[in-house]
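Sequence only, no structure available. Ideas?
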Amino acid sequence: MTSRPEPSFYLSFFLFTTDPRPGDPAARELLLGQVRELVAMGYGGFELPIPPSGMANPEAEVEAYRQLRQALDAEGFAAVALTTNVAATPDFDPTSADAAVRERALAYLRSRVEITAALRGTVMMGPIIYPYALRPRGSDGAELWSDALQEALPAGYARAATVLAELADHAAGLGVRLAIEPISHWETAAPNTLAELQAFLELVPNPQLGVVIDSAHETLDGAGPECFAAQVAALAAAGRLHYVQLSPPDRGRLDRSWLPWTPFLERVLPHYQGPLAIEMFNALPAFQPLLRLSRRKYWIAGVDAPSDAPSAMDVAAASLAASRQAVAAVLASL
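Reply:
I predicted one. Tokens follow.
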């Protein structure tokens, strides 16, 4: 039996937005109000999506997020932790065969590390190898799948390793760990599995670069419970298990899902004592084509009129309660 305290639960702001718009006073006030309500619920931190930009003025972007952190502190939330969710994009692609694109990708990802540090965050996570939702194409322009895709990926991984090795060094200097996310094959081409990420990490020895394990992606694309147990243990032993997300396979509310709580948590919690981030994607336009969302949107106070669907805040509360119950049950059995 364990006497470990309850972990801190974070909430991904993908429940509310894809862009916190820190320079917009109205958006900032909305976010502060949401944080106030969520902290009262029991959330100890938040995962903020940092959207792509044209990189016209990265210093101003960093400063806007620094001011957001200051606003949170001034509201009494200095103890509230923040992490960031960042994705590579076709314009900032570490795997590109074009050296100029890779240089832009490094500058872009460095700016996101600096944003994370400005927020006093210690983890920047997300799909930062192959761009999210990108499908590599062959010489004929057709999308690559199956064997052809697997044969094409290693060259991209090798190019990305050079970029991410430099990024890891920069992140270490700012106290930010990088947690790469394997994304389900439904959403992106690669990497889809922890095994693929473990192979990639061998190309970048710096343990500042590690992984985030997302229960949704592991349920959909993982190799099964026993293999998962060995993978988690190996990543933790190497100091590369940086972050864990609790998310249902359907990307909706966590309290009503087929997430295999016990098999997942029994293999994670003995090796991981960091925060558990609850991630649920609301039916925002940005997500509908990417995640094939068909359910109704959870309405957001201050943004939407109330509807017959549950509110985002109600979903956040119910999902936190379900997560706490599941984690407590597994901790009690360890």
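The chain has ten helices and eight strands.
Hope that gets you unstuck.
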